[in-house]
Design brief:
The structure holds 2 protein chains of 2 kinds. Chain A is 24% helix and 20% strand. In chain A, the strands form 4 sheets. Chain A has a 4-stranded mixed β-sheet, covered by helices on one side. Chain A has a two-stranded antiparallel ribbon with strand order 2-3. A two-stranded antiparallel sheet of chain A has the order 4-5. Chain A is globular. Chain B has one domain: Up-down Bundle (Formate dehydrogenase/DMSO reductase fold). Helices cover 70% and strands 2% of the residues of chain B. In chain B, helix 2 packs antiparallel against helix 4. Classes of the chains: A alpha+beta, B mainly alpha. Chains A and B meet through strand 2, strand 3, helix 2, helix 3 and strand 6 of A and strand 1, strand 2, helix 4 and helix 9 of B. The complex binds iron/sulfur cluster (3 copies). The site of one iron/sulfur cluster (SF4) has 14 residues of chain A, from helix 1 and helix 5. The site of one iron/sulfur cluster has 14 residues of chain A, from helix 2.
C-alpha cells in the first residue's frame, strides 16, 4: 500500500476548509501550518483569474527530510506515509533545510519539527484525512496508489498527461499530485510580487523559529524551571512582525 | 488586485502566511568556523612535521592539541545550543540514523575530540608537569604515554578529513538550498580548514624557524587563493540550478548580504593572500599575524553569508 494525495485544482474554490480542518484535527498552533492554500493571481486587469493551490507535505518516496533526520524522528510507515515522532526529535531543523517544499515547521509549543502526516492516526482507524472530509467539492482525492482501482489511481489514469507534482527536478518522487495546475501554480519561481515587492524583500517572517519563549538559555533550563508558554498575544505579535533579511529569523 | 501588466507565464503571489526566517543562522556559522580551526591545525601540524624537524616548531606538540581542543569544544557547544531540544542530543547516540550526515558527523567529531584530548594530555603533561594541578591523573597518564602521540597522529589526520567535510554533506543533503552543492562545498570546507588552521598556528609561530613560518604563509596563500576562486565561480556562474540563480541574482543586484560578502572576500581572502605571498619572501611576523586575523574574520563573514542567502527564498 502506498498512500497518496491528488488535488484537482480545477475544482478547488479556495474556501480553505481543508486548512481549518487540518488545524483543528491536528491542533496546529497559530503561526504555523501543515496545510495552506496558496493563492495566486493570473492575467492583467480586467482579465484576471485567481487560482488556489492546497500545499502540504508530499510524502516523497525519496524524502530528503527522512534522509537528513539524525534520529529517525522522521520515518516511513509501511503505507508510504512519512511520519514524525516528535518525542524523538532533537530540534536540529535539518529537515527544514532539506524539504524543498517548505512543508516542515518548528512547532512553537513542543519545539520539535512537525508537518502533515496524511493524518496517519485517522488512517490507522480506517478514517479519511480531516482535510479530505472537509472539502466541499471533493477536490482532495486520497487513496492507495498501488491499488489500480482506488479513486486516486482511477483519477490519475483518467487525467493521464495532466497530472503534475511540485518541483519534479528535486527527484523526491512526491506521492502528492495535482490536476489542473501549471508552472505558475506549482513553481514558486514563476511567482512575482508587485509594487516594489519581490520574492526576497519585505517578507513577513516569523520572528522566531519555534517558541519565542524558548531562547538558548531556556532550552537548557526549561526542564528544571519551566518557562513562559506561548499565548495568543505572542503568536499574533510574532506573526505580524515584518523583518528584513538582515534581521534574521532568529533561532 | 492585479493592475500591472504581467507576463502570461508569471503569476502574482500573495504571501499570506508568515514564512520562517533564516533557520540556520550565525550559531551554525560559529560551529563551522570553529570546526575549521579545530581540524585545520591538525592538517597543518602534520604537514609541518613532515617538512621540518620538530625542533623547528618547539611549541607545536602541546599548543596544537590545545587550540584544536578549544576550537572543537566551541564547535560542539554551538552545535548543542542550536538544537531546540539540546538534552535530546543523546538520541543521536541512542537512535542513530546513519543516512544522515548529522549523525555520522556527530559520531566522528566526538571520536575526534576524544583523540585530540589524549594528545592534549600528553602535550601538556610533558611540557607543564604541574598543570592544571599536581597529581592530575589525566596529565600523569599523558606524561607516561608520550609515544602514543605519534601513534595516534595518523588516525587523527585520517579522521580530520571526514570531520572537516561532513558539514558539506549536511549542506548537500539540504535539498531545499540548491546553492550548497556537494563537490564544491566539500572542497570549500577543506580550504577553509587549511586557511583557518594556518591562520591559527601563525599566532604561536613566533619562535619557529623562518622556513616553518614560510610554510604557514604558503598554505595561507594557497588556501585563500583557491577558496576565493571557488567562491567567485559559484557566486557568478551558478547557472545549473534555478533557485541558486534566483538567490544570487538578488544578491548581485545589491540585495541583502551583498556588502557583507564583499567585505568578507576582501578582508579574509584578497588581503591575506597578498600579505602571505609577500611574507614568503620577507619574514614579517607582525604583518603575518595581521593577515591571520583578517583571514579568520573574513572567513567567518563569508561563511555566514553563504549559509544564510539560500535560506531567503520562499519555497512554496
Ligand atoms: S514534502 Fe518535504 S516534508 Fe514531506 S516528505 Fe517530502 S521532503 Fe519530507
Ligand atoms: S528537527 Fe527533528 S525531525 Fe527534523 S531532522 Fe532534526 S531531529 Fe529530525
Ligand atoms: S492529511 Fe491531515 S495532516 Fe495532512 S493536510 Fe490533511 S488534515 Fe492536515
Amino acid at each position: 500500500m502506498k498512500l497518496g494525495f491528488l488535488v484537482d485544482l480545477n475544482l478547488c474554490m479556495g474556501c480553505k476548509g481543508c486548512e481549518i480542518a487540518c488545524k483543528v484535527e491536528n491542533e496546529v498552533p497559530l503561526s504555523t501550518w501543515r496545510l495552506r492554500v496558496k493563492y495566486i493571481d493570473l492575467g492583467t486587469f480586467p482579465d484576471t483569474r485567481r487560482s488556489f493551490t492546497p500545499l502540504r507535505c508530499n510524502h516523497c518516496e525519496s524524502a530528503p527530510c527522512e534522509r537528513i533526520c539524525p534520529v529517525s524522528a522522521l520515518h516511513y510507515l509501511e503505507n508510504g506515509i512519512v511520519n514524525i515522532d516528535s518525542a524523538r526529535c532533537i530540534g536540529c531543523a535539518g529537515c527544514m533545510m532539506a524539504c524543498p517544499y517548505g512543508a516542515i515547521y518548528m512547532d512553537p509549543e513542543t519545539n520539535t519539527a512537525d508537518k502533515c502526516t496524511y493524518c496517519a492516526h485517522r488512517i490507522e482507524s480506517g478514517m479519511m484525512p480531516a482535510c479530505v472530509v472537509a472539502c466541499p467539492v471533493e477536490a482532495n482525492i486520497f487513496g492507495d496508489l498501488e491499488d489500480d482501482h482506488s479513486n486516486i489511481s482511477l483519477y490519475i489514469m483518467e487525467h493521464k498527461g495532466a497530472v503534475q507534482v511540485r518541483k519534479p527536478e528535486k527527484h523526491t518522487n512526491p506521492h502528492h499530485y495535482y490536476v489542473g495546475g501549471g508552472n505558475q501554480t506549482l513553481n514558486p519561481l514563476a511567482h512575482q510580487r508587485i509594487e516594489g515587492y519581490n520574492l526576497f524583500n519585505n517578507i513577513t517572517h516569523l520572528d522566531h523559529v519555534g517558541d519565542k519563549n524558548h531562547g538558548i538559555l531556556d532550552r537548557f533550563l526549561a526542564p528544571f524551571v519551566g518557562h513562559d508558554t506561548p499565548d495568543n498575544v505572542s503568536f499574533i505579535e510574532s506573526a505580524t512582525s515584518e523583518e528584513s533579511h538582515e534581521q534574521e529569523g532568529g533561532h | 488586485m492585479v493592475e500591472n501588466a504581467i507576463h502570461a507565464t508569471q503569476a502574482v503571489v500573495t504571501l499570506d502566511v508568515p514564512i520562517q526566517g533564516i533557520v540556520w543562522g550565525s550559531i551554525i556559522t560559529v560551529n563551522m568556523w570553529a570546526k575549521s580551526i579545530g581540524t585545520g591545525v591538525v592538517f597543518l601540524a602534520a604537514f609541518l612535521w613532515f617538512r621540518h624537524n620538530k625542533e623547528d616548531m618547539p611549541n607545536l606538540r602541546w599548543a596544537m592539541p590545545i587550540i584544536a581542543f578549544l576550537a572543537l569544544n566551541v564547535f560542539l557547544l554551538f552545535t548543542l545550543i542550536d538544537l531546540h531540544q539540546p538534552y535530546r542530543m543523546i538520541n543521536i547516540f541512542l537512535h542513530p540514523h546513519w543516512t544522515s550526515s548529522i549523525t555520522v558527523g556527530a559520531w566522528l567529531a566526538s571520536i575526534f575530540l576524544g583523540l585530540i584530548s589524549i594528545l592534549m594530555f600528553i602535550g601538556v603533561g610533558e611540557k607543564f608537569p604541574g598543570v592544571p594541578f599536581k597529581g592530575c591523573l589525566l596529565t600523569k597518564f599523558g606524561r607516561n604515554n608520550g609515544p602514543l602521540y605519534e601513534k595516534l597522529m595518523p588516525f587523527l589526520i585520517f579522521l580530520a578529513i571526514p570531520v572537516t567535510t561532513y558539514t558539506a554533506i549536511i549542506m548537500a543533503q539540504s535539498s531545499a538550498r540548491e546553492l550548497w552543492q556537494a563537490p564544491t562545498e566539500v572542497m570549500q570546507m577543506m580550504w577553509a580548514a587549511l586557511m583557518a588552521g594556518s591562520a591559527a598556528l601563525i599566532f604561536i609561530s613566533g619562535e619557529w624557524t623562518k622556513e616553518a613560518r614560510k610554510d604557514l604563509a604558503l598554505i595561507l596563500a594557497l588556501s585563500t587563493f583557491f577558496s576565493f576562486g571557488m567562491y567567485m565561480s559559484e557566486y557568478f556562474f551558478s547557472f545549473k540550478s534555478s533557485e541558486a540563480e534566483a538567490v544570487l541574482a538578488f544578491v548581485h543586484s545589491g540585495g541583502s548580504y551583498n556588502i557583507e560578502f564583499w567585505i568578507g572576500m576582501t578582508l579574509g581572502f584578497i588581503i591575506p593572500f597578498f600579505i602571505a605571498v609577500g611574507n614568503m619572501k620577507s619574514d614579517n611576523k607582525t604583518l603575518l599575524k595581521f593577515a591571520a586575523i583578517l583571514a579568520l574574520v573574513g572567513l567567518f563573514l563569508v561563511k555566514d553569508v553563504w549559509l544564510k542567502i539560500p535560506q531567503m527564498l520562499p519555497l512554496s
